[in-house]
Design goal:
Strand content: 5-15%
Radius of gyration: 16 Å
Oligomer: single chain
Helix content: 40-55%
Number of helices: 5
Order of helices and strands: HEEHEHEEHH
Distance between the termini: 34 Å
Length: about 140
């Protein structure tokens, strides 16, 4: 997924910002930025929510982060190409919280299925559609 985001940013010349609490390699390009946050609960999430605005596109598998972004009006995709929306985030958050509660009581719960080539394709298509839609909505340099 990360490679797809990088390729999309380079192809479409849009900025991609990656956020984590430890350094990671990114090719040196003007449209790619890596932000390091201090370790600790939700530090990366807090920065992402704080700095996201307008027509940004966020990519996350983290349900609570997605809920915060959607609540702020940010377009968010999951790594399998699904869109996080106001209509779906409540159910996904409730399911996540239930599964977390069951795990805290010692119950074994199934994890997500493996990331398939079909998932990768759906994500690539959804990201391309989202970026293309935002680029069409921007005024050209001569306007």
């Amino acid at each position: 997924m990360r490679e797809l985001v990088i390729r999309t940013a380079l192809r479409c010349t849009v900025k991609a910002v990656f956020v984590a609490n430890q350094p990671q390699y990114l090719p040196e390009r003007d449209c790619l930025e890596f932000r390091i946050v201090p370790g600790g609960d939700d530090k990366a999430d807090d920065l992402i929510v704080q700095e996201s605005a307008g027509d940004d596109i966020a990519v996350t598998a983290d349900v609570p982060l997605a809920a915060r972004l959607v609540g702020k009006g940010i377009f968010a995709l999951d790594p399998r190409g699904g869109e996080w929306t106001e209509a779906t985030i409540g159910d996904r958050l409730a399911t996540r919280n239930l599964m977390e509660h069951l795990r805290s009581t010692g119950m074994q719960t199934p994890g997500p299925s493996g990331y398939s080539e079909a998932d990768r394709g759906k994500f690539a298509n959804a990201l391309d559609r989202a970026v293309t839609k935002r680029l069409r909505g921007r005024p050209s340099a001569g306007q």
